[in-house]
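Duplicate of #3305? Posting structure anyway:
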């Protein structure tokens, strides 16, 4: 008993030390300074070669070679993960139709290892790099969760005889699902969203991740300690398994999908409405438009749109865009009034593309109305062939719908973690004698991501005409 008490005291002291170090490392003064210097993901220079180690935050979204590489990584991860999941599902439904060797742990290890180290390489590189820089992100938690499931499963393969029968399950499929979903979200962003588009809402999600990751790590540590001390034998293996379940269920795949999926489907909805969105930041910022300035050349044609905007309470001006200096001055004056009003109000300019780029630069959002909707314009956020600027009210409505969708997804992901993490940690065990198996934790994580996907899909049919 004395030895057990001594081990328990040592475990608590180690956990307290880890808690202190974690808080100091991630929330100390140096971490705050690093956070202030860290921006959104950076584009790699075009001359740099693309390789499997490119991190998700430096991958070039406008580079064909980069997208081909990411597509290959997603395909490899998805196919190999399905090769593990499908036999498992068939075995659960009808064990007699699946040969034993198809569900052997060693075969699963061989199949999932390329997913872990090839497809998952950019996730691990970026995730651990972010931890070293004291700014953990969603890839950090995805890397830790997938790695924990992989390492524990290997432990079962190598030391099965040392573990009780109840601890012989492997979780390679969980590793595959996590990596596939994270990469798939990035692939959708790279393929559908505009090149080098800043997305402020994603920055807020990243900041939330910087708080979530250390908290989840500490919850997993204390979960392990509590189960090691108070759990029934075999205490160590059970404590390790439950702590891994916490890391798995906390993998923020749903949170990572919230903004990219919503922006992807909103961009597609804009395209079907005749708008080519070039910057997703504009798609987000359009919800804050409080004033619209029209070029005097397409203004007569925009009379119906202008009346609709005035009825909606927006300020509307018309400028002679051919007089660049005067147009820039008048837009600046209107912009200054919005700054006084506050509330992150934005100004939108509608021109025909013939105005000087300085005029478009003076506005927060620049919409170009042209018959050649595929043409490129410097500092044009939206290009449309819809006459009369009719897309402006639609753009504003779509922006509000998209931001609302992202907020719904983020809230769902947060509530899911708020409920799922304590359940994975075993809070129900004293009352029900039940703990959450890591496979079920992985399934719950997948269903959470599916809910986010289905909610974001609603944007493809958003009503933006009125």
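Output from current build:
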């Amino acid at each position: 008993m004395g030895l057990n008490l001594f081990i328990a005291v040592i475990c608590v002291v180690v956990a307290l030390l880890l808690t202190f170090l974690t808080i100091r490392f991630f929330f100390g003064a140096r971490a705050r300074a690093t956070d202030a210097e860290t921006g959104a993901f950076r584009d790699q220079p075009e001359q740099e070669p693309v390789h499997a180690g490119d991190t998700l935050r430096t991958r070039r979204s406008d580079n064909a070679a980069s997208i081909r590489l990411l597509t290959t990584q997603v395909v490899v991860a998805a196919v190999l993960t399905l090769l593990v999941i499908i036999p498992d599902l068939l075995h659960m439904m009808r064990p007699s139709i699946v040969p034993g060797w198809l569900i052997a742990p060693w075969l699963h290890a061989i199949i999932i290892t390329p997913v872990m180290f090839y497809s998952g390489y950019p996730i691990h590189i970026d995730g651990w790099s972010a931890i070293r820089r004291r700014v953990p992100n969603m890839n950090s938690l995805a890397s830790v969760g997938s790695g924990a499931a992989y390492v524990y499963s290997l432990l079962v393969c190598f030391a099965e005889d040392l573990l009780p029968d109840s601890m012989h399950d492997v979780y390679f499929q969980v590793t595959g699902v996590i990596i596939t979903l994270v990469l798939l979200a990035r692939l959708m962003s790279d393929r559908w969203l505009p090149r080098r588009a800043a997305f402020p809402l994603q920055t807020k999600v990243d900041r939330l991740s910087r708080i979530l990751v250390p908290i989840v790590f500490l919850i997993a540590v204390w979960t392990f300690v509590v189960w090691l001390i108070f759990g029934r034998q075999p205490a160590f293996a059970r404590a390790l398994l439950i702590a891994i379940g916490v890391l798995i269920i906390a993998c923020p795949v749903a949170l990572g999908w919230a903004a990219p999926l919503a922006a992807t489907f909103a961009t597609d909805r804009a395209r079907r409405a005749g708008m080519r969105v070039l910057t997703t930041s504009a798609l987000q910022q359009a919800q804050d438009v409080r004033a619209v300035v029209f070029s005097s050349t397409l203004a007569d044609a925009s009379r119906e749109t202008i009346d609709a905007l005035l009825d909606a309470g927006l300020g509307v001006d018309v400028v002679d865009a051919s007089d660049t200096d005067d147009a820039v001055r008048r837009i600046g004056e209107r912009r200054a009034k919005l700054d006084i009003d506050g509330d992150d109000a934005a100004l939108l300019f509608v021109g025909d593309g013939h105005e000087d780029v300085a005029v478009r630069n003076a506005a927060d959002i620049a919409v170009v109305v042209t018959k050649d909707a595929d043409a490129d314009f410097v500092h044009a956020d939206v290009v449309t062939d819809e006459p009369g600027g009719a897309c402006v009210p639609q753009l504003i409505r779509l922006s509000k719908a998209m931001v609302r969708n992202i907020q719904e997804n983020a809230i769902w992901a947060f509530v899911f973690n708020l409920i799922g993490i304590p359940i994975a940690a075993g809070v129900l065990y004293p009352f029900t004698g039940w703990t959450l198996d890591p496979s079920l934790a992985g399934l719950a994580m997948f269903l959470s991501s599916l809910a986010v996907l289905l909610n974001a899909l609603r944007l493809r049919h958003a009503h933006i005409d009125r």
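Confirmed duplicate; merging threads. The beta strands are 275-277, 289-295, 315-319, 346-351, 365-369, 382-384. Confidence is low (pLDDT under 50) at residues 39-44, 51-55.
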